[in-house]
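2024-03-11 09:14:02 INFO queue: dequeued item Thiamine-phosphate synthase, len=220
2024-03-11 09:14:02 INFO validating residues
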Amino acid sequence: MKFDKDSLLLYAVTDRHWLKGRSLKEDVESALKGGASFIQLREKEDMALDHDAYLQEALEIGRLCRSYGVPFVLDDEVELAIEADADGVHVGQEDMEAGMVREKLGKEKILGVSVQTVEEAILARERGADYLGVGAVFTTGSKKDAVDVSFETLKAICEAVDLPVVAIGGISRENVMELKDSGIAGIAVISAIFAKPDIEGATADLRKQCLKALFPEKER
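2024-03-11 09:14:37 INFO prediction written
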Protein backbone atom coordinates (compact mmCIF):
# COMPACT_ATOMS: atom_id res chain seq x y z
CA MET A 1 0.00 0.00 0.00
CA LYS A 2 1.38 3.40 -0.98
CA PHE A 3 2.09 5.60 2.02
CA ASP A 4 3.35 9.17 1.93
CA LYS A 5 2.74 12.50 3.60
CA ASP A 6 -0.40 13.12 1.57
CA SER A 7 -1.94 9.94 2.98
CA LEU A 8 -2.19 11.63 6.37
CA LEU A 9 -4.36 14.60 5.38
CA LEU A 10 -7.55 13.22 6.90
CA TYR A 11 -6.84 10.35 9.28
CA ALA A 12 -10.02 8.68 10.53
CA VAL A 13 -9.96 6.71 13.78
CA THR A 14 -12.85 4.29 14.29
CA ASP A 15 -15.11 4.15 17.32
CA ARG A 16 -17.96 1.64 17.44
CA HIS A 17 -19.68 3.75 20.11
CA TRP A 18 -21.20 5.78 17.26
CA LEU A 19 -22.49 2.88 15.13
CA LYS A 20 -26.19 3.27 16.02
CA GLY A 21 -27.19 -0.01 14.43
CA ARG A 22 -24.87 0.23 11.43
CA SER A 23 -21.82 -1.97 10.88
CA LEU A 24 -18.30 -0.63 11.32
CA LYS A 25 -17.61 -1.49 7.69
CA GLU A 26 -20.54 0.69 6.58
CA ASP A 27 -19.29 3.65 8.59
CA VAL A 28 -15.70 3.27 7.40
CA GLU A 29 -16.83 3.02 3.79
CA SER A 30 -18.89 6.20 4.20
CA ALA A 31 -15.76 7.96 5.51
CA LEU A 32 -13.71 6.63 2.60
CA LYS A 33 -16.30 7.81 0.11
CA GLY A 34 -16.12 11.24 1.74
CA GLY A 35 -12.37 11.45 1.32
CA ALA A 36 -10.75 9.94 4.42
CA SER A 37 -7.15 9.27 3.39
CA PHE A 38 -6.01 6.99 6.24
CA ILE A 39 -7.91 4.61 8.53
CA GLN A 40 -6.96 3.48 12.02
CA LEU A 41 -8.96 0.65 13.57
CA ARG A 42 -9.29 1.34 17.28
CA GLU A 43 -11.19 -0.77 19.77
CA LYS A 44 -11.64 0.77 23.20
CA GLU A 45 -11.10 -1.40 26.26
CA ASP A 46 -14.69 -0.98 27.44
CA MET A 47 -16.00 -2.29 24.11
CA ALA A 48 -13.30 -4.86 23.47
CA LEU A 49 -13.79 -7.72 21.02
CA ASP A 50 -12.33 -11.18 21.55
CA HIS A 51 -9.33 -12.09 19.42
CA ASP A 52 -11.18 -13.90 16.65
CA ALA A 53 -13.82 -11.20 16.27
CA TYR A 54 -11.17 -8.48 16.25
CA LEU A 55 -9.14 -10.36 13.65
CA GLN A 56 -12.15 -10.81 11.37
CA GLU A 57 -12.99 -7.14 11.74
CA ALA A 58 -9.42 -6.14 10.91
CA LEU A 59 -9.38 -8.38 7.85
CA GLU A 60 -12.69 -6.95 6.63
CA ILE A 61 -11.71 -3.31 7.16
CA GLY A 62 -8.29 -3.99 5.66
CA ARG A 63 -9.82 -5.36 2.46
CA LEU A 64 -12.14 -2.37 2.26
CA CYS A 65 -9.29 0.13 2.66
CA ARG A 66 -7.21 -1.63 0.02
CA SER A 67 -10.10 -1.37 -2.43
CA TYR A 68 -9.97 2.42 -1.93
CA GLY A 69 -6.17 2.57 -2.01
CA VAL A 70 -6.05 3.96 1.54
CA PRO A 71 -3.54 2.89 4.24
CA PHE A 72 -4.96 0.92 7.16
CA VAL A 73 -3.36 0.49 10.59
CA LEU A 74 -4.39 -0.92 13.94
CA ASP A 75 -4.18 0.97 17.20
CA ASP A 76 -1.73 -0.62 19.68
CA GLU A 77 -2.32 -4.25 18.64
CA VAL A 78 1.03 -5.14 17.11
CA GLU A 79 0.62 -8.92 16.93
CA LEU A 80 -2.91 -8.64 15.58
CA ALA A 81 -1.78 -6.15 12.95
CA ILE A 82 0.80 -8.67 11.76
CA GLU A 83 -1.73 -11.51 11.80
CA ALA A 84 -4.26 -9.45 9.83
CA ASP A 85 -1.57 -8.22 7.41
CA ALA A 86 -2.58 -4.63 8.10
CA ASP A 87 -0.48 -1.91 6.52
CA GLY A 88 0.92 -1.10 9.95
CA VAL A 89 0.25 -0.12 13.53
CA HIS A 90 0.09 2.99 15.68
CA VAL A 91 1.43 2.88 19.24
CA GLY A 92 1.45 5.25 22.19
CA GLN A 93 4.09 5.96 24.80
CA GLU A 94 2.57 3.38 27.15
CA ASP A 95 2.43 0.63 24.52
CA MET A 96 5.19 -1.54 23.06
CA GLU A 97 8.39 0.47 22.56
CA ALA A 98 8.72 1.77 19.00
CA GLY A 99 12.02 0.06 18.29
CA MET A 100 10.59 -3.32 19.31
CA VAL A 101 7.52 -2.68 17.16
CA ARG A 102 9.71 -1.91 14.16
CA GLU A 103 11.62 -5.15 14.68
CA LYS A 104 8.38 -7.13 14.71
CA LEU A 105 6.81 -5.31 11.77
CA GLY A 106 9.83 -5.26 9.50
CA LYS A 107 10.87 -2.39 7.27
CA GLU A 108 7.93 -2.39 4.88
CA LYS A 109 5.06 -1.79 7.31
CA ILE A 110 3.88 1.62 8.56
CA LEU A 111 4.71 2.62 12.12
CA GLY A 112 3.04 5.58 13.77
CA VAL A 113 3.94 6.76 17.26
CA SER A 114 2.10 9.14 19.58
CA VAL A 115 4.31 11.84 21.13
CA GLN A 116 3.80 15.00 23.15
CA THR A 117 7.29 16.47 23.34
CA VAL A 118 10.19 17.21 21.02
CA GLU A 119 12.30 14.67 22.91
CA GLU A 120 9.72 11.92 22.39
CA ALA A 121 9.48 12.87 18.71
CA ILE A 122 13.22 12.63 18.15
CA LEU A 123 13.39 9.27 19.93
CA ALA A 124 10.45 7.90 17.90
CA ARG A 125 12.21 9.00 14.72
CA GLU A 126 15.39 7.22 15.80
CA ARG A 127 13.45 4.05 16.63
CA GLY A 128 11.88 3.76 13.19
CA ALA A 129 8.61 5.71 13.19
CA ASP A 130 7.17 6.69 9.81
CA TYR A 131 4.86 9.37 11.17
CA LEU A 132 3.93 10.95 14.49
CA GLY A 133 0.59 11.59 16.15
CA VAL A 134 0.65 14.67 18.41
CA GLY A 135 -2.06 15.67 20.85
CA ALA A 136 -4.38 16.35 22.34
CA VAL A 137 -4.26 19.71 20.56
CA PHE A 138 -7.76 20.60 21.81
CA THR A 139 -9.90 19.30 24.65
CA THR A 140 -11.23 15.85 23.80
CA GLY A 141 -13.63 13.39 25.35
CA SER A 142 -12.40 10.44 23.30
CA LYS A 143 -9.44 9.66 25.53
CA LYS A 144 -9.59 10.04 29.30
CA ASP A 145 -5.84 10.41 29.82
CA ALA A 146 -5.22 12.85 26.98
CA VAL A 147 -2.88 15.71 27.83
CA ASP A 148 -3.13 18.99 25.95
CA VAL A 149 -0.27 19.94 23.64
CA SER A 150 0.14 23.62 22.90
CA PHE A 151 0.33 25.05 19.38
CA GLU A 152 3.92 26.06 20.10
CA THR A 153 4.89 22.50 21.07
CA LEU A 154 3.09 21.08 18.05
CA LYS A 155 4.99 23.42 15.77
CA ALA A 156 8.29 22.71 17.52
CA ILE A 157 7.80 18.97 17.00
CA CYS A 158 7.08 19.50 13.31
CA GLU A 159 10.27 21.54 12.99
CA ALA A 160 12.42 19.11 14.99
CA VAL A 161 11.91 15.95 12.93
CA ASP A 162 11.78 15.12 9.24
CA LEU A 163 8.64 13.02 9.70
CA PRO A 164 5.04 13.90 8.84
CA VAL A 165 2.99 14.87 11.89
CA VAL A 166 -0.72 14.35 12.44
CA ALA A 167 -2.49 16.47 15.04
CA ILE A 168 -5.16 14.72 17.11
CA GLY A 169 -7.57 15.56 19.88
CA GLY A 170 -10.77 17.56 19.78
CA ILE A 171 -10.35 18.69 16.17
CA SER A 172 -13.47 19.75 14.27
CA ARG A 173 -14.41 21.75 11.19
CA GLU A 174 -14.86 24.75 13.51
CA ASN A 175 -11.34 24.78 14.95
CA VAL A 176 -9.14 23.17 12.29
CA MET A 177 -8.16 26.62 10.97
CA GLU A 178 -6.40 27.24 14.30
CA LEU A 179 -3.80 24.65 13.21
CA LYS A 180 -2.75 26.73 10.21
CA ASP A 181 1.03 27.22 9.92
CA SER A 182 1.78 24.52 12.48
CA GLY A 183 3.59 22.36 9.95
CA ILE A 184 1.35 19.31 10.32
CA ALA A 185 0.62 16.96 7.42
CA GLY A 186 -2.96 16.38 8.49
CA ILE A 187 -5.47 15.79 11.26
CA ALA A 188 -6.73 12.66 13.00
CA VAL A 189 -10.35 12.65 14.12
CA ILE A 190 -12.97 10.36 15.59
CA SER A 191 -16.24 12.07 16.49
CA ALA A 192 -15.83 14.82 13.88
CA ILE A 193 -16.57 12.07 11.35
CA PHE A 194 -18.11 9.04 13.01
CA ALA A 195 -20.47 10.85 15.39
CA LYS A 196 -22.15 12.66 12.51
CA PRO A 197 -25.47 11.46 11.03
CA ASP A 198 -24.09 11.94 7.50
CA ILE A 199 -20.60 10.47 7.75
CA GLU A 200 -19.77 10.81 4.08
CA GLY A 201 -20.90 14.44 3.97
CA ALA A 202 -19.13 15.31 7.23
CA THR A 203 -15.92 13.73 5.96
CA ALA A 204 -16.06 15.60 2.66
CA ASP A 205 -16.68 18.88 4.45
CA LEU A 206 -13.89 18.29 6.97
CA ARG A 207 -11.47 17.38 4.18
CA LYS A 208 -12.31 20.66 2.46
CA GLN A 209 -11.77 22.62 5.68
CA CYS A 210 -8.51 20.76 6.31
CA LEU A 211 -7.17 21.61 2.87
CA LYS A 212 -8.20 25.24 3.33
CA ALA A 213 -6.36 25.42 6.65
CA LEU A 214 -3.23 23.44 5.84
CA PHE A 215 -2.77 23.35 2.07
CA PRO A 216 -4.85 26.07 0.41
CA GLU A 217 -2.86 25.64 -2.80
CA LYS A 218 -4.24 22.08 -3.08
CA GLU A 219 -7.86 22.95 -2.31
CA ARG A 220 -10.32 21.80 -4.92
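2024-03-11 09:14:37 INFO annotate: Residues 5-215 form a domain with the TIM Barrel fold (CATH 3.20.20.70).
2024-03-11 09:14:38 INFO item closed
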